[in-house]
Amino acid sequence: MSDLTPAIILAPPTSDEVMTRLIEGMREVPGFPIRDWHVGGVMRTIVELERLTIADLLQSAIPNMVSAGHAELSADAFLNMVAEQLYGIAREGGISAVQSLKLTCAAGVGPYNITAGTVTQLASARPFTAVTGVDNNGDGANNDRPVVNGAVLGKSAFRGTATQDVALFVEGRIKPAGRTILLRLEGFNLFNHANILGRAQTTYGDLAAVNNTFGQLVAAGAASNALPALANIDPPRMFQFQVRFAF
Question: Which of 157, 96, 159 is nearest to 125 (CA)?
Answer without folding.
Answer: 159
